[in-house]
């Protein structure tokens, strides 16, 4: 059975110990830090797409098509967008964030009951990847399976706080509805049958996982990251961002852009499997997370992925002589193994799938 290569240290415990300098294993190379990257700049404000999804449900075809075109442009040009009027209860979003804050505020020994291993990553963790001596991210997390139902094991979900399991189930149900709606909109825009992407991912057996990120306060935030640069290996991610603090950065045309969350928004992130299936018409976005010396943060990322044993490849409808398939076919289980073994590393895994073209 896979195990962690070194003793796991909880970043929250480090933060709460009052240290003034961070341990060497968290110090990123100069070129990876959030404020220093030769040849690139960090922008605080840009024309980041914000899409009102209300009209996606609208019977008026003109309003529906306008929303679809906005989603299309965001997925092609940015690889993500902020969604408002998305149908997920704002009150439920607040409860979901709070219940996980309460979990991370439990005594360490209670959290440790859910300590995870790299075999499945389910439970309470503090690192991605199993390489000994790797440079680590300044974050802890809790990872759990939501779909398919056959993989859902609520005994592995926190028993405390007492409302946690109920809130996770309710929040997950609403976000799944939103995900299916978005996948159908993407299929339609790509000229595919409405449920094409959904079915390619397994239909009712599509995977959904929740990763709750805890970013503790950091005494030297300029030296590290909460989550290193990566693209999400799955289909799409629906992120409930930390309220009141801009932590997420996306890479656009060589520059890192800080995303200031719109109140009550959810952030929709295109993953690598959508880039493959669309034959790079849609782009997955490389992103990372900064940390703060002033405030900790909690965010909820719901990942929607193909069923692990399904082969994903460019859809035949988006392939032609002029646009041949760019990527080799691969099961999602094999694809995501790279992230689980090596941790986040930009878009290197996706690039490795490309066919060699003359």
Automatic annotation (TrEMBL):
Keywords: Iron, Metal-binding, Oxidoreductase. The keyword Cell membrane does not apply. Gene3D superfamilies: B-lactam Antibiotic, Isopenicillin N Synthase, Chain. It comes from the Eukaryota. Residues 205-306 form the Fe2OG dioxygenase domain. Belongs to the iron/ascorbate-dependent oxidoreductase family. This is Fe2OG dioxygenase domain-containing protein.
